Amino acid sequence: MKRKGHLHQIHPVLPVWDVVEALDFYVNRLGFRIAFADDPKNPRYAGILRDGIEIHLQWHDVMEWEVAIDRPMLRIVTQHIESLFEEFRDMEAFDGQTALRITGWGTEEFAFYDPFKNGLTFYKSV
Q1: For residue 116, what are the CA distances in angstroms to 4, 53, 55, 105, 126?
Q2: pLDDT tens digits, residue range 95-123?
Q3: Distances in Å between the alpha carbon of 20 and those of 30, 43, 51, 60, 96?
Q4: d(Cα 21, Cα 4) in Å, to the nearest integer?
Q5: Which of these, 8, 34, 7, 6, lies nearest to 22 by C-alpha position?
Q6: Are strands 73-77 and 45-50 parallel, antiparallel or unpaired?
Q7: All domains in the chain, ordered by first residue
Q8: What is the number of other CB atoms lying within 10 angstroms of the CB of residue 36?
Q9: Counting beta carbons within 10 angstroms of the beta carbon of residue 70, is it exposed (0 to 12), middle (13 to 18) or buried (19 or more)?
Q10: Which of 113, 76, 79 is nearest to 98 (CA)?
Q11: What pTM was computed for the model?
C-alpha cells in the first residue's frame, strides 16, 4: 500500500533588509537562537530557533519593497501566552499599543511587527 504524504514542519522565510539587525532583534528581544547563517560576518540568509519554531531570514533589497504593508504575517501557536507577552514586553519587543486580548474567534493573542514590518501574532485557543 502506498503511504500518504505527510506535512511535518514549516519554515517560513521572512524578508529583511539587514540580516544582522534581524538576528539581533530575534535573538535579543524574542529569545531565539541562531541555527545557521550563510556567512558569519555578512549573512544574507540565516535561520533562527526557539522551542519548536524555526524561522528563516533572507536579505532583500529595500528598494524592491514598493508597498509598506505588503509583508508576511505569521500566526504562531503558543502556550503560557501571558508569560510570553510579559517576556516580550519586558524586552521592549513591541510598542505600548500591543495588547493581550481575547478575540471573537476563540483565541487569546497579541500581535506586533518586527523592525522589517513582518507581522508576528502569538496566540492560544481559549
Answers
A1: 38, 19, 14, 28, 30
A2: 889 999 999 999 999 999 999 999 999 99
A3: 15, 7, 21, 13, 25
A4: 41
A5: 34
A6: unpaired
A7: 13-61+71-125 (3.10.180.10)
A8: 11
A9: exposed
A10: 113
A11: 0.91
